[in-house]
Amino acid sequence: MRPVLLYTTSRLALFLVTLGVLFLLGLQYLPALIAASFLISGIASYVLLSKQRDAVSERLSHRIDRPKPQDD
């Protein structure tokens, strides 16, 4: 569960940092601020968080491929 939590926290932090920077740069119309932050942080996370995303993917694939316990 740790890679998922780390990736999610990193994505949220990146979004909040982007939101703060755009606000300080003068973008104060709330819908545009949120949309731009979502877009920019999404692109940045694609580049910056690739190792974490791979770890989450590996973790989830192992969990899915694991055999399920049988009920008798």
In short:
The chain has helices at 2-24, 30-48, 50-65. It has 72 residues and is mostly helical.
Notes on the protein architecture:
The chain has 72 residues and is an all-alpha fold. It has one domain (2-64). It is built from 3 helices and no strands. The chain has helices spanning 2-24, 30-48, 50-65. Keywords: Membrane, Transmembrane, Transmembrane helix.
Tags for this model:
single chain, 72 residues, mainly alpha, 3 helices, 0% strand, elongated, membrane, transmembrane
Q: Which class of secondary structure composition applies to the elements? A: mainly alpha
Largest sheet: none
**Percentage of residues in helical conformation:** over 70%
Mean pLDDT: 91
The coarse silhouette is elongated
How do the SSEs run, as a string of H and E? HHH
Distance between the termini: 29 Å
Whole-number tally of structural domains? 1
* Approximate strand percentage: under 5%
What does the radius of gyration come to? 17 Å
Care to count the β-strands? 0
Put simply, the count of helices is 3
Low-pLDDT segments, ≥5 res: none
